[in-house]
Amino acid sequence: MRGALLHNTGDETLEVVDDLSVADPGPGQVKIQIEATGVCHSDLHAMTGSLPQPAPVVLGHEGAGVITAVGAGVDNLAEGDHVIVAWSPPCGKCSMCVDHKSPHLCVMLQFEWAVQQKFQRGDVGVFGMAGAGTWARETIMPWQGAIKIDDDIPFDVASLVGCAVMTGVGAAINTAKVTPGSSVVVFGCGGVGISVIQGARVCGAAEIVAVDLVDDKLDTAKKFGATHAVKPDDLAARSAELTGSAGFDYAFEAIGSPVTMRAAYDAIRRGGMAVIVGVGRAEQTFELSAFEMFYSEKTLVGSYYGSTDVRSDFARIIRLWRAGKLDLEAMVTRTIALEDINEALGAMERGEVVRQVITL
């Protein structure tokens, strides 16, 4: 079986191999033939070590495909079902799922699967990123991590729902609960940032300001619903124009940098909300003073997987797409083969694309 393999954390390139294997599904598990899988910044973070991930590992966590086998005890999925891979599925039983009604924060299955060497290459066990490993032709998942969809949904569209779209749109509609008529600023216009912009538009935000360093990405942001697009140095003037320098109601950071996290906090009004969506390194920090926390009464909150209940929110995203409220097809800048993965990682790092999808 073919797959894109990271031999060691810190390696700058992946090797596309054709001698991987994956076991048949055990009890409560399903095997999925991956048809389309996105290239996400989180995969790059796993390569560099920003996200902890043991190696060797098949990267990829944003995918969609067809179930080819089901294990014992799985009675709600069957061979031939089309599914989206949920890389952080809820177990449905723990306190986060039941008592706190925060299934996106359940780590029972994710932690269990993240340390399993689900693939094999000769005598060497190989991990799957975030327990998924969608940059291979087949993978196995717990049944909770395979969300059934209708057969007519294109796999490239479905794959994006599994991470970028759900993370970004969810940050706007679930985490922040953006209100109609409000003002929003979004730092970073990659796949997640574009999804935040679309989510804010769905929520009815009056002004949506996109902030990025790359001109092409600012132009792209306007196509997806940003009412204004500026470089960081021009944000203060735009804020003065739109908010009277009071600050925005909501700010979203979709980069993962302490500098832009602090900038997002500074960009909101007193009583506003700054949502951190980007993934930063564990050792990085940014500072807030004790007085400003008291005086400003701002809300600073993280957004993990768009505060999403994948069991219902994937379907909600697809309904919005069917209704023409979310433009997911246009997010696919290009479709590539697995052999093009290293070039794709470079294009993503340079900010040349919104999303690239590998077809297998």
Keywords:
single chain; six-stranded mixed beta sheet; alpha/beta; 360 residues
Structural commentary:
The chain has 360 residues and is an alpha/beta fold. 30% of the residues lie in helices and 26% in strands. The protein contains twelve helices and 19 strands. The protein has helices spanning 41-48, 95-98, 108-114, 155-161, 164-176, 191-203, 215-223, 235-243, 258-267, 290-296, 310-322, 341-349; strands at residues 3-6, 15-17, 21-22, 29-39, 57-58, 63-70, 82-85, 119-121, 124-128, 138-142, 146-149, 183-187, 207-211, 228-230, 248-253, 268-276, 299-302, 332-336, 355-359. Helix 12 links the parallel strand 18 and strand 19 (355-359). The longest helix is centred in the middle third of the chain and has 13 residues, at 164-176. It starts with a strand and ends with a strand. The model has no long low-confidence stretch (mean pLDDT 96).
